[in-house]
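Q: What does the assembled structure look like for these inputs?
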Amino acid sequence: MNWVLFGQQLINGVSLGAIYAVIALGYTMVYGIIELINFAHGDVYTAGSFVALATLVLLGASGHMAAAALAFALAVTFAVTMLVMGATGIVIERFAYRPLRGKQRLAPLLTAIGVSFSIENLLQLWMGPSPVPFPQIVPNPFFSLGPLTVGQMQLVVIGSSLVMMAALQLFVHRTRLGKAMRATAQDWMAAEIMGIDINKTIALTFFVGSVLAGAAGVITGLFYGNIWFINGFRAGLIAFTAAVLGGIGNTTGAALGGFLIGFIEVMTAQYVGFQWATVAVFSVLILVLIFRPTGLLGQQLPERT
Amino acid sequence: MRRAVALASILAVLGLVLLVPGTGGVPAVSAATVVKIGVDLPMSGGEAPNGVPTNNGVLLAIDEANKAGGPYTFQEELKDDAVNGVHDPAQGAKNVQELIADRAVVGIVGNFNSNVGKATIPITNAAGIVQISPSQTNPGLTKPEFGALDVRKAHPDQINYFRVCPTDDLQGPVAADFAYQNLRARKVAILDDQETYGKGIADEFEKQFKKRGGTVLSHDGIPKGTQDFHAILTKIKSENPDLLFFGGVTTTGGGLIRKQMPDVGLKIPYEGGDGIVEDEFLKVAGDAAEGSYGTVASVNAEKLPAAQGFIKAYKAKYNQDPGAYSANAYVAAKIIIDAVRAVGPDRAKVRAWVANLKNYKSIIGTFSFDKNGDTTNKVISVYQVKNHKWEWLTQRSFEL
Amino acid sequence: MAAWRALRSIAGAPSRARLGGRVVQRIAPYRSPLLVLLLFLLYPLVDHNAGHVNAAADAAVYVLLALGLNIVVGFAGLLDLGYAAFFAIGSYTYAFAASPFYGLHLPFWPMLLVAAIIAGVFGALLGAPTLRLRGDYLAIVTLGFGEIVPTVFLNLQKYTGGTNGIVGIDQPVLFGYHFGFNPVPYYYTLLGIIMLSVVAVLRLRDSRLGRAWLAVREDEIAAASMGINLTTTKLLAFSFGAFFSGFAGALYVAKLGIVSPDQFNFTVSFTILAMVVLGGMGSVFGVIAGAGILYEFQTLFLTDLTQWSHSLGAALHLPLLTRLNFVNLKFLLYGLGLIALMLLRPEGLFPERRIKAIITERVSEEIPPGDVTEVAGVAGSAPAAEGTPPREYAREE
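A:
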């Protein structure tokens, strides 16, 4: 066994998994609070890339900018994208999911896919049917870690994902709003009695999840240098799988699931054959669920049929 | 009971809706005979980058024909064979049947994807209507040794399906020869996008490269929708090949693979088929595109003055460069238009005229159709990216 | 045991003497559906456009698929996001058995049944790992199978033809009549099979097994404590559901003449699910309508919208209409259509009466949109008032 190669692939897996993990967080939060598989989440992530591109173009950002200006442009881009996507999340929840809340379990699933198709088509109308190049403004030099090399962009991806995950954990566990979210997820009726505004809390959940997706959109735009209106579909599917793998509703689990899927994908590419990556991911998922029916970190749900 | 009435009325409305296009249709606009050219391409969702520029080529040919005047007014009858954003053989079959049902349609341009063709050719073959594809390169659609007789069961001798693009079993081997002889590659790694075209060309490349005595270190397929190629490229780097061959098109990975090669420190030549020889590839791969090789199954279009006119007209009308198959689609439509002008809008006569086409001068070169309906144009050009542009490098004539 | 009993209950086997009277009695409540059926029988005689008849035949394939999925999702309440996997298995079964690929040319009609049985067996096999899972965990596993099965067909090129698929699949022959590429005989065959399937599904729903599904759907724990064997009940739901997709698959590829893995992607699974939910989960006639409407909307309405608007524009001399191009908006229209329909009729177009029970019951756990106390009050009383309490639950031996 070539351990250097293994290590190198591990780095690839972590950077790939970090992106899945951030998207999975949004899935798992929404699921945790209203038990909805929000299929539109992947498209919110892609829309984030498009908004980021538009912002960068407006700011006139390019690779020749001075470091300070560049940092400023990036900060503005992140802020704008995250806010726009957060607002989009609230709008989606308000018009496509809230009217159906409590009516029929599968109806919101269909509206979610309806929203997903609509977003995809709008993005296509906006920037055309072909992949759109994303300006390469962050240089990508390589650093050596002993025998391993890691690109700067990979570090950015991993680092920013970790920061977002930590921020989310702090938010959920250390703030009043986070507490409200947790309470609502556990028992909305009790939460309501305690004076928590359920509608606001759910909207906030969508806001936070979409903000994370938007940020992931900016990061992947910078990392892959290309955005395409249909990218969100597969990314969303994989991220959803990650959320379930980790135990849906559990933010730590979603992150763990994301990294695990990234790891499975790269190791399949290295040792089995790239074309089996999807099969490997879902096989592991099924195996895990057979032995742990509520995912890796999921708790046994109370009976609720 | 109210429920049943509602059900019945909805179904009745549905039935009406179904009947409308059958009985309706466009009334004759002027005295000139309206002749329709049916087009079946994937136009929506993720397939739009394939279908839209190709369809533009057809529209351009029709525009020019109508501007030139004559006793016929040409019209396009466009059908989209993508369902939920993916090309669908069943939808293609239905579209083609609808086109055949429209008596004004004299010939069909399409389809785009080879597996759609496998569902539509049997139908057009049975109906005896001419079908010309701009882009389907799978040998199984025309060549009996690849099972084409299963596709044209109804009239195996009356060829009705033609294509203006050479097949994968020509392009793949030329690419392999070029890699082996000109680039002196001895060990290669291959990636393909697992689509009919990409896998076909990659398999033919592998066969020929091995025949030459080269080594194929690995041949992997790309799962649909992959964006991150770092892992597979890291693996390929560890195998230490002389060249990476990609079978597929820009959007299924051709561009992103090239772009991510420097990310993992993979500094070897990159070669692909005509699926990556397009401006799209330059945009997606960015600076990394420099030095990539690509084969195209036609003579160098830029050296033909007629092609220059086409490129100019296309840019003027659509405000962008032609797509990889725009010129082919233009030629396909042009052949049908010329056939109608020569023998009138009669499906049988048009088919016979096209089947006997010899030395047809077009913007993609002069060619004939052989006994299976394939173009006799067997010149394969090799291009290389130089200064952010695909530059013609050399051309090879294919012989088995 | 349960399977055999269920089969016997489909067959029904009433005594001959009572048959005539029973038939009239049984048909009486279905007058309107039979009237609609008559309309459909006449359809190919009116519309001679082969493309339209073909679309209607494909819609009929989806009707079969929706009927099958309805057993899993509507009757037994198991959310299946990977139903296309069974459609693929049924399709490939017939393609393997009757094409030049393996040089086998087995006759169509027996293979139709074999394809359905094999799909049914896979339904139970792939259903087995999901038995311990609840709700959306089950959904994701089925989604996983929906992704795995086509990928396996894609990757095992040697045995399945890979991305090229299998071409030249034999077309059915009935008493010397070759179906060929004429969609009309397929259309009538499908109508016949749908009729049989509807009878079978209705009988299945009212059988002991069908009531067990309902019980499992409504309350798994209560069902189990009533003596219902959850394992067999659920597996049979998957199995019967998959069975119909086998029919659909064999007919579909025989008509099309080609099968390839990209015909069975996630959007196919999703489309079938949307048909079931749109029509009204659990309601047999509802899902038939849902499948027909959604299919025609997707493949005819959206595809021909541009053409219609151009024709209309030419007829009314409105140049604006002739310039519209809806092809670019197809997805958007589909998406918005789905959202609008679900918002207007969340319980589906023709909801099953029994399903109201779970809808209202779910309210007690879901979060209501407005005032909590009021809705909670309704939720508390609704199931008892509106839900048809399941009659005599059979005890499993």
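Chain B has two domains: 32-166+305-369, 168-296+380-397.
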